[in-house]
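#lab-general

N.A. 3:47 PM
ok so I finally got the sequence cleaned up, no stray characters, all 208 residues accounted for. can someone with queue access submit it? mine expired

B.Y. 3:52 PM
send it over

N.A. 3:53 PM
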Amino acid sequence: MSQMHANNGNDEKERAGNETRSAEGPYDPDQEELERLLLEGVGESSDESRPQGQRVVLPQSTHANTRLYHNEDSEVPAGGDLQGALGLYAEAAQDMVTAGVELALGRHFACADYCNQAAEKAAQAVSLLRFGRQSTYNHDLRALGALVGAPEEIQEEMAILTPFHPETFYADTPPEEADEVISAEQASSYVQSARRVLRWARSIVLNA
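B.Y. 4:20 PM
back already:
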């Protein structure tokens, strides 16, 4: 009899736990992955290869999660937009995940394009934090890096990714040939360049 009561008690606890989880909303593995990227950064050694159709989904409001990443002992520059910077850095991290998927699928230009976008958003996140606004530039990522105070080595990585803005790239390359002119090795190197830019931006935005 005591065993039966114990089992009934465990069942009630399990039901209560399920009800609590249900009240909190459905579990979202993509949200968990995005938070991991925000807190731990984008790794160097491994490609983020998620199955097609499982792209990271940006939360509708990154502002609601700002408390997870803000260091209360740090200072944000006067006029800086910490919440906007965190949101844009999250988008950059999402683009890096997608770049890894495109690389795994052999879509090399799409991979390079997402690397370009990730680097731009990471730099603009720094701009939001430092100046309270995104910096105006004309698709030249090196120039953007200089505007937001990136060190020379980061500007060089950004310069590598500049040609892969679609407007620039398609000016000389027909879309149907885009994947053929970029090898897998080149695309992989662009992923590494973008990751270095994100790690630089992460050291600023997530420590603010």
